Amino acid sequence: MRENKYDKLLFASVVLLVLSAVMLLISGYNIYFKKQAIPNIVQANITNTNVPKLRDSLAKIYSNTVSNMDDHLNLTASAAADPDTKTKMAELATLREEIVALLANKNNDADLQLAKVKIEELQQKVALLQNKYTGVEAENKRLQLLINQLLNTKQTTVQTNTSVPIEKQKVPSSSVNNNGIGSAGALHLFAVAVSNNNEQETNTAEDAERIIGTFTVRNLPAKGNGELLVVVLQPDGKVVKNAVWESGTFESVEGRKIYSRRLHAETATEEKQLNFSLTPDKFLKGDYTMQIWYNGNMIAKMIKTLS
Amino acid sequence: MLNMYIKFYLFFFFLIIVSLQCFSQNFIAASYREDDLYAGIDVGSKGVKLSIIKMGKNASVTGSFVAVKDTSINTDFISFTPATFHATLYAIKNLYNYAKQTYRISTERIFTVVSSGIKGQAEKENKQDRIVALSDSLRVLLKEPNRVVPVIGAMEEAKLSHLGIVPEGRRYSTFLIDIGSGNTKGGYFKNGNTKDLKLFALNWGTKTISNATDKRLDDDKSITNYKRQLNRVLAGEPNNEIVYAVNESGAYNMNDNFAFSGGIAWAVATLLYPELAENSVVPLKFEDLVALNEKLATNFATITPVSVASSVVDKTVNKQAIEVEVARVQKVFDQKALMAGTSLLLNIVRQFEGTQEKKNFFLVKNGQVGWISAYVTESVTGKL
After folding, report:
1. Can you tell me the distance from the alpha carbon of A10 to that of A59, in angstroms, rounded to the nearest whole number?
2. CA of B205 vs chain A CAs: smallest distance (Å)
3. How close B115 comes to chain A (CA, Å)?
4. Is the CB of residue A17 less than 8 Å away from at least one CB of chain B?
5. Do B276 and A27 touch (CB under 8 A)?
6. Using an 8 Å Cβ cutoff, are A173 and A216 in contact?
7. What average pLDDT does chain A have?
């Protein structure tokens, strides 16, 4: 009888032992397979003193860099329209022209050293652009898919719509360019709960982990440089600030205000959808207000209530 | 038979404890709980500094850590005398006990480091044995024979500061510049990896600029004369050095974001953007900096704690906290020191203010604790 009792104890111990072995294996796996975040840039290895070979080697490195750039730097229309991107793409084009000219000049071997320096500069610039846009674009795509999914759910499900766009009637739509304000529409603000890597809309503050917002703008006047400022207010009136690097202040007709996110849209375009997400430290019960500001004026506003 | 079962059970129990320990080291520590506190004790040239930080959610991604406590004890270890050695040793012990007892931080979460300034001076004076003696004495005093007291080099310190302050999403597009009292240093990761940091250094800081200006004042100690002489100082050697260092760094072409830390960055951020008192990093507009620089010289009397706080229209902002912070700024920097620091900052920022391509400028308020957040992250993930 006593033996039987300790057999159970032994069984429990074995179960715990297996569990600990699994945890040890996971720990080992985690240590062994650490991800390397960013691939190192291929260094141009040109210690070769044989000039024709050196020229060929540089040409090959250049060709690989350009090919890598063409393969991986697929910018979306919005990214390509970004003024910073335009400047950087123009710089890349100039650099490519310079390198091609240097490699083509077979009368001056001294140019090869300069070509090497410029190829390295090109590699760095391409790597930086790739780093910038692969992350940003991937997040934008993910956000867009999620918003589409949330909007579809809203349309197909009969439910009480707690997000009531208010004061939308105040937003001028046709007289945009005359009064220099701009217009925004199709405002949606979602609170999202995450379970098992699956994001779903929630209306309860307790479950909410992120705020996702979307709106469209059109015919933004040039004055304002296409810079849209999103202010999301908590029920206690405080501005929701995402990571500290994302929020700041802006001058408005009501004085200096704090923004939650700064977004950019091309001016004078017909219609453009913009998305954003925020991760507040905590969620409160009550009304969350989303305001869109352009050129110091509020152009749209809506409220989302969390219970 | 019973004895054998007990032995088996104890053995299994031991294995479980070991595995749980490994599991928590790799997963729980890496993901940081909400209430995770860490302490860093940094032995610097001027004294011993304690930084207690709370790691935020996804700290390495968002750059969000909260400086819970930041305090220091002046011990002047760099003079390498027996008295300063003793003072430094007991300052570390006191700060260590403070972190352990007041904040209940476990010993493995208290990091002790000797900074690059000490290392450089010790090498100059051939006093490296003093650093070794300090580490050994500390282990005995704390009764922790396995305590690691690494000596951090200038490059490592700059890298850690960058990793700790700048969030992952901006890591390869941000040039971080720390404007200190005696010099200015910083850098950026130029090759899209964290191995190669392009260092940036100037022999000028807020105090050296201020001292150089003071020397030119002669009998006229007025602010008008100070402003005139300050402009002359900046237009001379500092300007040449700034222009050369900026061009040599290649930073303009390679970065979108330029972040400035150091005491003057904190002071300017507090005076310019009181609404963002809670933010550790605030965006800076070039034109705001120009206006403040002018106001410091011509209208300083209007910059009071009450006037700065009352300029805030947002009713949810704690105005009393703003008044306290502005008063702190004015305690640390008098008018001339503020003018010297702001002018130096303006001269550096001006180098990156493009007409075609707009760069983003940021002021980092808690740069002094930046390295510890990176040190913690790197330590718990086994990268150090």
Report:
1. 69
2. 25
3. 27
4. yes
5. no
6. no
7. 74
Q: pLDDT over 90 for what percent of chain B?
A: 43
Q: Left (φ > 0), alpha (ψ -120 to 50) or beta: where does A128 sit?
A: alpha
Question: What tokens appear for B219 in the block?
Answer: 């009998």
Query: What pLDDT sits at residue B303?
Result: 94
Distance CA A286, CA A125 (A): 47
What is the number of CB-based contacts under 8 A between chain A and chain B? 140
Residue of chain A with shortest Cα separation from B273? A249
CA distance to A85, A123, A129, A142, per residue, from A80 (Å) = 6, 19, 11, 19
> Are A256 and B254 inside 8 Å of each other by CB?
no
Tokens of B20: 């749980």
Beta bridge mates, A190? A212
- Contact in structure between B203 and B183 (CB atoms under 8 Å): yes
* pLDDT computed for residue A35 by the predictor: 38
- Nearest partner of A299 among A198, A245, A227, A244, judged by Cα: A227
Interface check B31 vs A, CB under 8 A: no
Angle, vertex CA A172, rays to CA A171 and CA A178, nearest 5: 145
Cα–Cα distance, B199 to B180 (Å, whole number): 15
Could you tell me if B73 and B47 are in contact, meaning their C-beta atoms sit under 8 angstroms apart?
A: yes
Residue A21 near chain B (CB below 8 Å): yes
| Maximum Cα interatomic distance, chain A, rounded to a whole number of Å | 98
**A10, A23, A242: residue with CB nearest B20:** A23
Question: How far is the C-alpha of B74 from the C-alpha of B91, rounded, in Å?
Answer: 9
pLDDT per position as a tens digit, B140-163: 999 999 998 998 887 888 888 898
How far apart are alpha carbons B310 and B323 in whole angstroms? 9
